């Protein structure tokens, strides 16, 4: 069985003694073994990053960006391999893995614009013959801690921008599916990154806590669940660092009576079940305004779900794959059970799905639940599985009140064709990423990603323009040259 | 004796039972009495702010900016009164108080540009017929906690920008000199701010802790000493808030052998002793490169200091006034004593200064200390008094190593006429605000203020462009209109 | 009778011999006499501006902006006087004149943000130890030539931004109604502008041609009719200047079947007849999609127009006043006659309106014409009078084709509640300023004003962000300091 | 002999009857034959561009940028072939041609950032519930006319930015060396550009005039000599187009007495003689302040020039090659003769250089002339050859007065180590591109290129941020949704 270690200072290392299995969620079997970093190993990675910093800091942004141009080429050339690595450990279908990679590449493309993005502000004559300007300088060593559900995309939200800003990086990817992450780290090195500028450590809480408390780490970016995000934010900041910690979600779609229902169903299908619902932007709740809309939605959705195909990653005719672990499979099924127990109606039931040839896989079938109400546990918590819950309300305001009362504020969407309804919704909804007839309103790479309320801790969002501010610190210089000595001296020295 | 209360929801309140005296530092006598807010009072202020938020949030930025246009007029019309209030409680001389006010007004002027500053980013066709844009929306209720040394300027670093961004504000000013702060809060109300949009509570740790832990407060801006800044940052963030906490400083000036020494001395004089050195940007250490430069600096500085005049705020011929409290006076003298005890040479001694007619005032005279070395306590800690310490080094690199090794990184300056030396300095010094022949490199209001290392906790600086990002959260909207119904329907409905 | 001269170098001058009468359009009588500048007088103004330039250029942007802060106060304090001066010579009603002034003041407010707006772009390390930055420097002497219909607002589109950018200005206002323009020029001087920075010359083609051909004038901003705009653009550019020339318009509103008709009629009423239709953004054509919409529009509009009141400027119950000259009155009536002759239906006829007490005034009443078709002269040309023409089409696409085929592309609007229709319209319409349910989509002062096609010649729009680029030229500086001499020399000079 | 035609709508065409020879300037022999486009052929290219516009305009900026990512790869892969094509027709040495290509590629890299660069400005609540935003939309068909001296770089200044902004392009390259230009046009097509989006026509004045007068061409970018630039600007604008026309130069370097003379000489050597001085940024005049500096400069430069090697493009040990034509060779020699006749001293004489094996080549050797004075013809006009003229002045101010009095204002440089002198120079010199110890201050691709005075006609510079504004027009949309119908209607429809 292959053993996966760390990538430190341009070298693969696997010295640590603690190990953990990596599973293929479609077969349910362990496929690789992961080395878990000790505090010393993480400190070694930090030290490598710190040593590489001075030279990387002084490398012109244009040169740093050119590493990203080459990285993009390598990612594109090795797309199939990356998708396969994702599929083997995460379980998502190849088309979905390629989609994930593509969204990641968009962040690499954005980072190619570093020379433009890093421009400072220059003010001539802030006073008589006094100039002042602000530069955006790198922080030093920064760290990223990333989740299992996007082993390639989320690291690519962080690393490219952190690196082109001039920082050195230590990445701790998910211990569930680190192979694809490790592979792209090596591609980045191959693209021309100097040794030590990027380091990857595999590990668990020991690695995380080392990153959070070591004073050489200046900033931490995290994506994961809200309880962990909260711990990361409190710990990193208590250690004097800047931190952005992205947490969980409960994304609602409002379906208005004037919505194009066929389109809405089609959009919801992918947004609810794609990647088994294991996306922080998955649309897991549909709020229908009026019973007519609700009935139509249930009817058309039920029909559409009949065509959903669940299975292993390597058959691209599948719509989605298994969930990440046996434990998580049981948790998702538990939420469906609880909804049923609390009075909801299971319209399409995915609890007992079996996939021929993959009988031990961690599969849950697409599930549709009607008549969900706010007090249900399945509504209050994040399921992170292929489950779409439908709620029924009497007005758009009631639907918005539901959303605004929820603890999360990551993404949301409205289906309507009415300009006024759309504007009222986007203006007044307490959610950071809003879709108008767009069910997964993930901002493109040149905007920034982030939720509101307990979906994000920190003041700057992930990737895009905010990443420049997060990964740099401002230095403001004020300059006056006091006397004309040399300039006028010349005149005295050489009289005509 | 006048009693100072709180300003909540457009009303003055003084219900709390705990009281504390305010002193005139020039006379050493208590002059007013301050009401200290209880938790309930602070919660009342927060509630008022929260109630005012929806309407203020929806007020167009142009209208919010117009309150600032009027506020600027009122501040200018009442400048003398404001300066007098500052002088009576802080002790700074009228010209210095007017200077403080002027720097504050510059922040009001900047806030007048809110409509421009709040522009979001709009992207057409992020996909076919899909548009996306980001808006910068206010946070809700935000709080400011401000220090005694700039009772008008530092609140004006925070309030104008927070307000024009659409937030409601709760300010807790210093308990040493709150009268001028309270007065400008009332002027802001007079300028047209609706009730509850700005609230001011006087108080101590109870008030501070309420602001830090109440979940309705979304962001905290703080300026003060580093230990408190660290506490504020850790506590506010542990409570899920965004926070920027500005702390202490130890600002060095490098005096190069090619510097125009007369100019350097003239600049240092104001930068070291102005406002009794009670500025986080005060230049408290001069590092002379080479003994020739050091000897010349000591000689010319000694001569210049002979003309320094210390006294009460109302005589504008004075250069600076008392320090803030008896306790602080003793602390400053203690630092001078310790330097002497550790081997430094007291060249000009301000320990025993007396001001006729103000024999009980908290005065310390301008003090010049030579041969200061890095291990001395007076070097390692922030004195915050009218004391200039001189260090001697053999090279510019040695001087820079000193600065980079210090825990603070607020401001610094180099005196030289050499372009290369200036650029090397500004590039490699680990300090956030850098002066080239500018001893107090406070960024102008349209740049942002912030130090590095333990001088600032957080990722965004105070005022200027960073304030827009700190006081707003990003909302990103992605929009697609799915079908041509109405547009093409018209064609079907009315055939030619 | 009062004689109006020029304002040059801070002085009023009236040396020229050629004179021309200024009329009160409500009475039809000459009320003042205008001095027409000779070439020599204009050259004197240019020379004054050129002499004032070096000092004004070197005045920090913050100080230049403060002149605008004071100018805003003076404009607000003297609003009634300004409105009266506009009314006496232009004829517009006081509420309309105050509205014009308010829109002008918004441009003054925007100019107060000059320090932010003039920031250059700074790039550290464009190569190893090489920095580069761009500054936006003033051009020198620039000129504005402005129309009669907004004697205060259009000069305020130009002067504030040109001045805060550091330029000196020569303004040639309309010879029909120069009094209010001259008055605000004097207020600007009172606000603290140094002599010569702003100069105003009254005159005709001789003045215009001098400004267009004198090599000391670096840029020309013009607003007027398209034939003149074309002449201005060709002549100014042939003389090597930069130029922006805004011309005529024919602004259409599409009324969709799903529009809120009462709202549409209410909006159209002001947009078509306000200021007697003498606005380049006046909505002069309503294109109804489908006969049902057209019939409803005609019916409701006819009813609404019954309440329109035409009269003199000083009665604020009037809705609009006379047109600017006898000649123009005849021209407007001529267009109505031609429409009738070419087969259109005059639904409401304003040709024979009389205003008691003002029988000699240049009045035209509100006129509504139905069944207008593209080949009619009244459709092809700009009427610039209180005339609303209605066209009937069968589809939204047909309406858009009409608009896109017209030679002008200034403003346009659609009335609908459908998001898809609005987006399709704004995306595909060949017009620079687009309203969605906003009949006069004049951009606010912090955006920029400009049409497409033959409505604007040049590449930068008026006021707002574009004004910064139009009134400045870019200077890019690349800097490297070649050797460490002084910095390292110090080390050699003082060995330890 | 190979015949070069046009590239229109994705096809090579060579139908025109007029032909002209292309020479190899190193051998003096005709090597290829060029087809000169008739008006009809140019109109065909414009028509192809116009037809391709709607689809290209609607292609998301991200997709347009990806063509540039691929284009960059192709340029890098084919660098040697491109350099060879440049060398054969222009004569520049391979390392110089590769340098030209590299600067061109930097513009392609900048264009890859189109999604960021094309962001519009979005303002929420310009009034109550009214939003407004500005989009930057493409112009349609735009044209570029480029010079012989950079057959690859200057087209790459224009095309990438014009194309990613959504325009279609017609390029007319120089008729002296079109092969490399034609080749990169084909690579751009290979990179994925749809047919017709880029078209290239070879030709002479007939082609140029067609582009200047055809109403379908919306904008013209030109680089060449000042008399032609002036003609282009006047003609294009008289035809209602926007235009930027870059002309000639006379770039001075000031050598201060404190300059590091070895460095200055080393820098001047490349800047004066590189590419045979046929660069609009070539440094052709050195102004020494004081005779000591002048004597030292002459002495060291004479020594350095002894090592200069002139010859054919394919020997990379050569420093520079021939000039472009026999006629131009004679013109350059004529300027040297005239300088001698007017009293200057020819220190190093390149008039009679011969290159073994290339006796018929158009070579001029490196020439150094001392004691040049302002009235000399060789000073007043642009030589565009490998000739460095030295002037002697007594003060820096005198040197600056010389520069400011010259009709051109393209580039300039100062050699000094004094911060004050550098700042005074960059502030007060009337030149658009300024170097501090940088002899060829060509702005990097993420700033913009342009001179002042008669070196540029128009208001926006070439490439970089200005290119976005030049190649787009602003559309400002103001939106209000008038009533809550659908949103509240839902409430009425479904009462609880």
| Spatial separation of the terminal alpha carbons of chain A | 87 Å
Q: For this entry, what is the oligomeric state of its chains? A: homotetramer
Dominant shape of chain A: globular
Parts with pLDDT < 50 across at least 5 consecutive residues of chain A: 490-496
* Share of helical residues of chain A: 40-55%
Q: On the 0-100 scale, what is the average pLDDT of chain A?
A: 96
Number of strands of chain A: 23
CATH superfamily of the largest domain in chain A, called what? Aldehyde Dehydrogenase, Chain A, domain 1
Q: What does the main sheet of chain A amount to?
A: 7 strands, mixed
Description of the molecule:
Four copies of one chain form a homotetramer. Chain A starts with a strand and ends with a helix. Chain A has a seven-stranded mixed β-sheet, with helices on both faces. The first copy, chain A, has a six-stranded mixed β-sheet with strand order 10-9-8-11-12-22, sandwiched between helices. With 496 residues, chain A is α/β, with parallel strands linked by helices. Residues 490-496 of chain A have low confidence and may be disordered. In chain A, helix 2 packs across helix 7, helix 3 (79-90) packs antiparallel against helix 7 and helix 10 packs across helix 11 (291-305). In chain A, helix 10 links the parallel strand 13 (251-255) and strand 14 (283-289). The first copy, chain A, is built from 17 helices and 23 strands. Helix content of chain A is 40%, strand content 23%. The first copy, chain A, has two domains: 2-247 and 455-477, Aldehyde Dehydrogenase, Chain A, domain 1; 251-436, Aldehyde Dehydrogenase, Chain A, domain 2, CATH 3.40.309.10. Chains A and B meet through strand 6, strand 7, helix 9, strand 20 and helix 16 of A and strand 6, strand 7, helix 9, strand 20 and helix 16 of B. Strand 20 of chain C pairs parallel with strand 23 of chain D, so a sheet runs across the interface.
């Amino acid at each position: 069985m292959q053993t996966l270690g760390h990538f430190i200072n341009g070298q693969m290392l696997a010295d640590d003694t603690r190990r953990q299995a990596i599973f293929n969620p479609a077969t349910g079997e362990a496929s690789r073994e992961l080395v878990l970093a000790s505090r010393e190993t993480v400190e070694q990675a930090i030290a490598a990053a710190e040593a590489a910093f001075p030279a990387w800091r002084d490398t012109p942004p244009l040169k740093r960006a050119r590493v990203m141009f080459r990285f993009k080429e390598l990612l594109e050339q090795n797309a199939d391999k990356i998708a396969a690595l994702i599929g083997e450990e995460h379980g998502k279908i190849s088309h979905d893995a390629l989609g994930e990679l593509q969204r990641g590449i968009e962040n690499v493309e954005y980072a190619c614009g570093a020379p433009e993005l890093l421009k400072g502000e220059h003010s001539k004559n802030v006073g008589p013959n006094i100039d002042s300007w602000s530069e955006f300088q790198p922080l030093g060593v920064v760290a990223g801690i990333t989740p299992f559900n996007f082993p390639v995309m989320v690291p690519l939200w962080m690393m490219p921008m952190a690196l082109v800003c001039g920082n050195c990086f230590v990445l701790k990817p998910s211990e569930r599916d680190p192979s694809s992450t490790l592979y792209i780290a090596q591609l980045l090195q191959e693209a021309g990154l100097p040794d030590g500028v990027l380091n990857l450590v595999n590990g668990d809480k020991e690695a995380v806590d080392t990153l959070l408390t070591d004073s050489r780490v200046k900033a931490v970016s995290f994506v994961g669940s809200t309880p962990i995000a909260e711990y990361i934010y409190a710990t990193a900041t208590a250690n004097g660092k800047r931190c952005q910690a992205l947490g969980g979600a409960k994304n609602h779609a409002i379906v208005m009576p004037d919505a194009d229902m066929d389109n809405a169903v089609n959009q919801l299908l992918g947004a609810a079940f794609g990647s088994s619902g294991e996306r922080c932007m998955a649309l897991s709740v549909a709020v229908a305004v009026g019973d007519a809309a609700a009935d139509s939605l249930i009817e058309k959705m039920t029909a559409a779900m009949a065509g959903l195909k669940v299975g292993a990653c390597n058959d691209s005719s599948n719509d989605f794959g298994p969930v990440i672990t046996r434990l998580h499979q049981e948790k998702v099924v538990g939420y469906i059970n609880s909804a049923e127990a609390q009075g909801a109606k299971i319209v399409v039931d995915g609890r007992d799905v079996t996939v021929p040839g993959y009988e031990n896989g961690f599969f849950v079938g697409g599930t549709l639940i009607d008549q969900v109400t706010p007090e249900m546990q399945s509504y209050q918590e994040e399921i992170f599985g292929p489950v779409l819950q439908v709620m029924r309300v009497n007005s758009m305001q009631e639907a918005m009140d539901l959303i605004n009362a929820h603890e999360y504020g990551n993404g949301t969407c409205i289906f309507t064709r009415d300009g006024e309804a759309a504007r009222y919704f986007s203006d007044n909804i307490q959610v950071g990423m809003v879709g108008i007839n767009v069910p997964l309103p993930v901002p493109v790479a040149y905007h920034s990603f982030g939720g509101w309320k307990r979906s994000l801790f920190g003041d700057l969002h992930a990737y895009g323009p905010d990443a420049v501010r997060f990964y740099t610190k401002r230095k403001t210089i004020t300059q006056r040259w006091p006397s004309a000595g040399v300039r006028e001296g010349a005149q005295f020295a050489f009289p005509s």
